[in-house]
Amino acid sequence: MKHPLIEIEAIPTEGSGSKIVEFFGREVHVYWSNGKPRAIANACLHFGGPLAMNEACVFVCAWHNAQFDPQDGARIAGPAPSGSRLMFLSTQVEDGTLYYVWGE
Question: Whole-model pTM above 0.90?
Answer without folding.
Answer: yes
